[in-house]
Design brief:
The two termini are 30 Å apart. The protein contains 13 helices and 2 strands; from the N terminus they run ααααααβααααααβα. Strands 1-2 form a two-stranded antiparallel sheet. The chain is mainly α. 70% of the residues lie in helices and 1% in strands. It is globular and about 55 Å long. The longest helix is centred in the N-terminal third of the chain and has 46 residues.
Length: 386
């Protein structure tokens, strides 16, 4: 290839690489929403076929550990930082917040409502995460700047949309099937009671709070333990162990642990590989560059995909309130994402980690565990991106 050819191709190639690097976080988060949408539908099918929600969470993270751990051991063997007691305690808390607390509330709440509604309530996740990020200085607001004002307005509109979705149910909308006997049959067989609907809504909103706390804590932990694959494996391992303890306490019948080659195994395998293993890793990589609010800002896409799948596969009813609330939330999230796109990349250096243990001199106390690899003297190993 001639030099002239090199001179002609090189600028185009560099601009293409630059464009791909800018688009990559967006593609990663959009792809995850398709994965989450499939999990909502498959998990509901398995729960309706008798799968215990505590056991589903445990099996999910056991499978995730088996899949992710080998990659973490091989790919991050030279760059894995030291394991200290504060980091290990953070991982234990991370293993409880999302794998145990949030997922079990989600599973119960979804059975009380529907897969479509469960995915719709997740749309409040960016607003809660944004508020927590403000509290811990992961986000900065200057109301004199348009992009900061857009983030505040977007968060407010998102909350309003979530309130509409939660409080106003409205009539059924037969979008994917007609008004005949088949629709009436599905309506009587799948529609939950009003009492269960309210209970399920409260559980799903509590789940969003726990999930937001997980994202914020994960962003702080990645600054001290910047090995995404290893952190993912640790979170899944702690989630499986803590979930097993909770299951043994809550479920005394050992038959709930039985699983076969059916939708129950499919739900555990799919959610474990896609929505725990791959999702935790991809969220960690993007979070280091864009922050936790950006990671949670793509929820409306998941709701739209889940609504279509739920109506077609599960014959779920789509309510007018959910549709109106979803439209409001989409506008709010668009404003929030636009405001986030104008922010500087990376986590704020002024962020306040609530779990830091500081001595009187202001230095962080790091207590090393016996499993620490003391041969690695570097304190801030570098990690390449995706």
């Amino acid at each position: 290839m001639s030099k002239m050819g090199d001179q002609e191709i090189s600028p185009r190639g560099s601009s293409l690489i630059l464009a791909m690097n800018k688009v990559k976080p967006y593609l990663a988060m959009v792809s995850l929403q398709f994965g989450y949408a499939g999990m909502y539908v498959i998990s509901l099918v398995s729960l309706n076929h008798g799968m215990n929600h505590y056991v589903l969470s445990v099996y999910r993270h056991i499978i995730a550990v088996l899949v992710i751990a080998p990659f973490a051991l091989v790919l991050e063997r030279k760059i894995r930082p030291k394991m200290t007691l504060p980091i290990f305690l953070r991982i234990m808390l991370l293993g409880f917040l999302e794998p145990v607390f949030a997922q079990n509330l989600y599973n119960v709440g979804m059975t009380y409502t529907s897969a479509t509604f469960a995915s719709a309530t997740v749309n409040i996740l960016p607003a809660i995460t944004f508020i927590l990020a403000l509290i811990f200085r992961l986000e900065r607001i200057n109301l004199k700047k348009i992009h900061s004002l857009a983030k505040v307005i977007g968060t407010t509109v998102t909350v309003v949309g979530a309130v509409v979705t939660t409080l106003y149910k409205g009539p059924n909308l037969d979008i994917f099937h007609g008004q005949g006997q088949q629709s009436h049959h599905h309506k009587t067989s799948t529609a939950p009671s009003e009492e269960h609907w309210i209970t399920g809504t409260l559980l799903l909103l509590a789940r969003c709070g726990g999930w937001s706390g997980f994202f914020v804590l994960q962003s702080f932990t990645l600054k001290k333990y910047p090995a995404e694959l290893s952190l993912t494996a640790w979170i899944c391992l702690m989630g499986a162990l803590e979930g097993a303890v909770v299951t043994l306490v809550m479920e005394r019948d050992t038959s709930v642990w039985a699983i076969g080659w059916d939708s129950r195994l499919l739900a555990a395998a799919y959610s474990g590989v896609v929505c725990s293993g791959i999702a935790y890793y991809m969220q960690g990589v993007v979070m280091k560059e864009r922050g936790p609010v950006f990671v949670t800002a793509f929820s409306p896409l998941c709701m739209i995909i889940t609504a279509a799948l739920g109506a077609i596969v599960l014959a779920e009813q789509v309510h007018l309130g959910s549709l109106i609330g979803a439209i409001i939330i989409v506008f709010g999230l668009y404003s929030l994402v636009w405001g986030k796109s104008k922010d500087p990349r990376g986590l704020s250096e002024e962020a306040v980690d609530p779990l830091d243990e500081k001595s009187s001199t202001g230095t962080v106390v790091a207590l090393e565990l016996p499993i620490t690899n003391t041969t690695n003297k570097s304190t801030k190993p570098s990690i390449n991106g995706c």
